[in-house]
């Protein structure tokens, strides 16, 4: 059973909006602009922004592909966490950072939808956090399965957006919101 976090302390978590991750991603420029809009809005509302950056054998730490896209620059003092697994919670200091902030509500944006965003969203809910997935601020690339089936990026994105509105976890609120309408202080939804 997850520990349900009481209160309403929001944070924005930006996951893997790195050069090599979004290079072939669907509508990357638009999505990056929406992530940047969320970051600006969070900072203006004094909502903490946490940055999670992936590194592995294919996305080598320190390489040009590993860097944040130029439109996104972590500010001084904003936590930066490194990860090697899909979930931003696995073998990182994310839980400690969230505890230090008293976070109860995660607003999530980034890439790649079908890997790290999905894994992080489920992990957040399983750990008792309320969750808002920014519906137009996450992306991925179209994938081809071994049998030749094409998994189109817009379908993968829509699938996760639908899942985040239909999932039900006891004592938690989850949903989606568009970047322009996300309410950091209203878990799972948008401002009225």
List the SSEs and their pairings:
Blueprint: E1 10-15, H1 19-22, H2 28-44, E2 49-54, E3 80-83, H3 94-101, E4 105-111, H4 113-126, E5 130-139, E6 143-144, E7 150-151, H5 153-166, E8 174-177
Parallel strand pairs: 1-2, 1-4, 2-3, 4-5, 5-8
Antiparallel strand pairs: 6-7
Brief sketch in words of this structure:
Helix content is 30%, strand content 21%. The chain has 192 residues and is of the alpha/beta class. The radius of gyration is 15 Å and the shape is globular.
CATH class: Alpha Beta
Counting H and I runs of at least 4 residues, what is the number of helices? Answer: 5
Q: Which fold name is given in CATH as the topology?
A: Rossmann fold
Find the CATH superfamily: Isochorismatase-like
Helix-strand topology string: EHHEEHEHEEEHE
What is the topology, as strand order, of the major beta sheet?
3-2-1-4-5-8
The unreliable regions are: none
DSSP strand count = 8
Total of domains: 1
Q: How would the global form be characterised?
A: globular
User: Architecture in CATH?
Assistant: 3-Layer(aba) Sandwich
Radius of gyration from the CA trace? 15 Å
